[in-house]
Amino acid sequence: MSTGDADPAAGDDEGPGLYVESTIIMTTVRLVAPFILTFALFIMFHGADSPGGGFQGGVIAGSVVMMLAFAYGIDSTRQWLDVRVVSALASGGVFAFVGIGLGAMALGGQFLQYAEFEALFGHAIKYAIELVELGIGAIVAAVAIGLFFLLAAGFDGVAEGDSS
Amino acid sequence: MTPTEWGIVALALAGAFFGGVAAVGLVRLPDVYTRSHAASKSDTLGAILAIAAAALALQSGLSTAKSVFLLLFMFITNPTAAHAVARAAQDQGIEPWTADEGDEP
């Protein structure tokens, strides 16, 4: 390879801790990641009136973390992105969704009846839908990241970062 | 036909040609390194030429800008993905195919 680092084919029993980063992949990931996150938000905000939405945008946002994990190593990404952050993202999305839904009921409408928010702020239907899409996006992104970390940890559910 | 239309047709045909070359290479070549070589180079070029044809054919500001962004990111990410695949294959200790193994390519 062009980086000239230590011969990676030498050890056949290398664990995930011995992962050698590639300069090419890290540079590309660093260059592309902000654009992908922007694109994920773009997709989420387009859910109201065009193709797109919270699910698709959330998967794209979650794939950024997978890309970081492939570039920088899964264990360092796991340490960088604490599991509490992922859990908070998922539960925050649930709270946003339920809050919007029950808030409409508190204002006298049905569950998720966005028009009730017109009393609080203008363009209520549009903004309430966007908030719900953001909540769904947060849930989907967090679930995708969590599933990825779980799959990467192996079948016993234990992270094997400090085994080597 | 206008020169723009000739350009669109030429770009689309060239893109289809390189896409076909990539597909043939993916099927015919013997191992992961040569296949990744065929897929990354030819397929990137084919996709980029096809997207360039689309960008030229759309001729409206926003869609053309989106196509150009797509083209740029294709240019960056596609070779990097091929590099990652080849690198992972080398990490796994896969030997490159050589002619004296006697395999029918």
Q: Can you give the helix content of chain B as a percent range?
A: over 70%
* Helix and strand composition category of chain A: mainly alpha
Tally of alpha and pi helices of chain A? 5
Structural class of chain B: mainly alpha
Biggest sheet layout of chain A? none
Low-pLDDT residue spans of chain B: none
Quaternary state of this entry equals: heterodimer
Return the domain count of chain A: 1
User: Total number of β-strand segments of chain A?
Assistant: 0
Question: Could you name the key traits of this structure?
Answer:
heterodimer; A: 164 residues; mainly alpha; 5 helices; B: 105 residues; 80% helix; elongated
Structure overview:
The complex is a heterodimer of chains A (164) and B (105). Chain A starts with 22 loop residues before the first helix and ends in an 11-residue tail after the last helix. In chain A, helix 2 (54-72) packs across helix 3 (74-80) and helix 2 (54-72) runs parallel beside helix 5 (124-153). Chain A has one domain. Chain A contains five helices and no strands. Chain A has helices at 23-45, 54-72, 74-80, 83-106, 124-153. Chain A is mainly α. Helices cover 63% and strands 0% of the residues of chain A. By secondary structure, chain B is mainly alpha-helical. The longest helix of chain B has 31 residues, at 61-91. The radius of gyration of chain B is 17 Å and the shape is elongated. The chains are: A mainly alpha (164), B mainly alpha (105). At the A-B interface, helix 1 of A face helix 3 of B.
